[in-house]
Amino acid sequence: MSSLFRACLFALLLPAVAAQAQTNPSFTLQNKGPAAVREFFATPSGLANWGQDRLNGKGLAAGARVTFRLPANGNCVYDLRVVFADGRAEERRALNTCQTKEVAVGDAGAAGAARSFRLFNRGSGPIAELAVRPQGAASWEISKMEGGPIPPDQERRFELPAGGQCNFDLRVRFTDGATREKHGADLCRSPDQAVQ
């Protein structure tokens, strides 16, 4: 095979290989928690049914990792759910697994950081209502506005729904009726969120 032929073949195959790498949703799941993972589910985002346990009843020990091969059919956005041996569950919604090659679960620090967050009002009027939902979920949970509306340039801490996830959609309604939404806010990494 001549070097010119090899170079031409490589030039023809390279775009196809690069495209396949960009749409490969396979990833490694790492259990960073103290308890074993009993079940793991990964479904295309938005499906109502979690489907079958992808660990096939074998579980995943604390500190262990396993690679999951998902179909390279062009879909990269998945909802993930793990259930630990102690009954606790964690979910990740609308995760792009083509861009994320390792997913860590059971990290106590991350789960603890996402139990509450501070909301800063950078708007010109008071915030009358806050609604929160795990990213990609259908229904909003209205938070109690203890202490009344949040005045401009003020802040307030809010508790989050249980579940251990990090990514949330936020929606605020100002007293004048205007609303603002933030989608996919990572409250583990950014527990302070501002709206205006």
Topology (elements, then pairings):
Layout: H1 3-22, E1 27-31, E2 37-44, E3 65-68, E4 77-84, E5 89-96, E6 102-105, H2 108-113, E7 116-121, E8 127-134, E9 141-143, E10 155-159, E11 167-174, E12 179-186, E13 192-195
Parallel strand pairs: 1-6, 7-13
Antiparallel strand pairs: 1-3, 2-4, 4-5, 7-10, 8-9, 8-11, 11-12
Summarize the entry for a quick read.
This protein has 196 residues and is mainly β.
Task: Describe the fold and architecture.
Helices cover 13% and strands 40% of the residues. It is built from 2 helices and 13 strands. The chain has helices at 3-22, 108-113; strands spanning 27-31, 37-44, 65-68, 77-84, 89-96, 102-105, 116-121, 127-134, 141-143, 155-159, 167-174, 179-186, 192-195. Strand 4 and strand 5 form a beta hairpin. 23% of the residues are buried. It has 2 domains: 24-106, Immunoglobulin-like (Sandwich); 112-195, Immunoglobulin-like (Sandwich). Residues 8-21 and 109-113 have low confidence and may be disordered. The strands form 4 sheets. A 4-stranded antiparallel beta sheet has the order 9-8-11-12, with no helix packed on it. A 3-stranded mixed beta sheet has the order 3-1-6, with no helix packed on it. It is mainly beta.
